[in-house]
Design a protein that fits this description.
334 residues; alpha+beta; globular; four-stranded antiparallel beta sheet
């Protein structure tokens, strides 16, 4: 089937909000530590990123409408609905408020954007592999205790990543629950009144977990703060209600940022949480360079999932044992 080679996990329409002409922007590649001008077509994508391998599409799946370009086609449809939603938030006057209807629509947009990126795919696949390998290690220890750990390793079928990613992206129940939970948080639009524009990145919806305990680093965890730049001058801020109860009076409001340090704090989030690329309407990436000097570990590929497996636990049945395997985010860089 014919289709696009460059498949975007950050939509071109969204990237166009960070340009002067709807097309051209500047890129900071934190792996190469290089700045370059580019276009919305050439960033925020990978070739055939969403492509489903033909050999993994069964006749049953084709009958259900699943084909090689299924994910890309779905996003083309969704993006046509998402663009005017973001534009509404951008075009709110400073004496207006975020309506409940607009918040609910934005929550769906953010949920899909969180799930569709390269960074999220990496975390999903890391988790699948780590969990599967932990199970294999346990079975080997139980059945072949004399063999060293790592004797048997998990083999991943080619094309596995896109299928697993698609299952997460288009899990309707998960999308509905996550969007509904996000919409119940405190939502604020920050207007940038400084000369320093907001950055965005190839992983533009970012979170800061103010509670650092293991098990409380998720998108809906107590103490989570989420931000999403809308354009160089506007940014969505979302706060979990229990930890940020004092912010409730600002719920739905538009606030102004007049200090460069305030803007740069959000830009810092983008640099740290980006997969690889940071985008701006201009070529001033001095903050990004400073952050990479300070935190060199973020400027190279890194694993973000930690697996913890308990020892085998005896049960009341002498023929059975059990084990607790848990996955945690280890990405708590400030």
């Amino acid at each position: 089937m014919a289709g696009k080679k460059k498949q975007h996990y950050v939509p071109q329409f969204y990237l166009s909000f960070f340009t002067e002409d709807g097309d051209h922007l500047f890129v900071y590649d934190k792996f190469k530590r290089e700045i370059r001008p580019d276009t919305t077509l050439n960033v925020g994508h990978e070739n055939y990123f969403y492509e489903l391998p033909s050999k993994l599409i069964t006749d049953k799946r084709r009958a259900e409408g699943i084909h090689e370009k299924y994910i890309e086609d779905r996003f083309a449809e969704l993006e046509g609905r998402f663009k005017p939603i973001i534009e509404k938030a951008i075009n709110l006057l400073e004496d207006q408020f975020l309506s409940e209807e607009l918040v609910q629509a934005l929550a769906v947009v953010l949920t899909f954007q969180i799930l569709r990126t390269r960074d999220m795919r990496n975390q999903i696949i890391e988790g699948e592999r780590a969990y599967g390998q932990a199970l294999i290690d346990s079975l080997m220890k139980l059945n072949f205790p004399d063999l060293p750990k790592g004797t048997a390793t998990l083999k991943v079928t080619e094309g596995f990543e896109a299928f697993i990613h698609a299952q997460h992206i288009f899990d309707e129940e998960n999308i509905r629950e996550m969007a509904e939970s996000l919409s119940k948080m405190i939502w604020v639009v920050a207007v940038n009144k400084t000369n320093q524009p907001f950055y965005t990145s190839d992983n533009p919806v970012v979170k800061d977990n103010h509670i650092k305990e293991i098990g409380k680093r998720g998108w809906l965890s107590p103490g989570v703060e989420i931000n999403f730049p809308l354009n160089p001058n506007r940014l969505l801020l979302i706060y979990e209600r229990t930890h940020f109860k004092d912010y409730e009076k600002a719920d739905g409001c538009i606030v102004t940022l007049t200090e460069v340090d305030e803007v740069n704090e959000f830009n810092r989030y983008q640099v740290i949480n980006s997969h690889r690329q940071i985008y701006s309407i201009n070529n001033d990436f001095s903050l990004a360079e400073n952050v990479c000097d300070e935190l060199s570990e973020i400027c190279k590929p890194r694993e973000k999932i930690e697996v913890q497996a308990s020892e085998l636990i005896k049960t009341d049945d002498p023929n059975k044992v059990t084990q607790i395997i848990s996955l945690h985010s280890k990405d708590d860089i400030e």
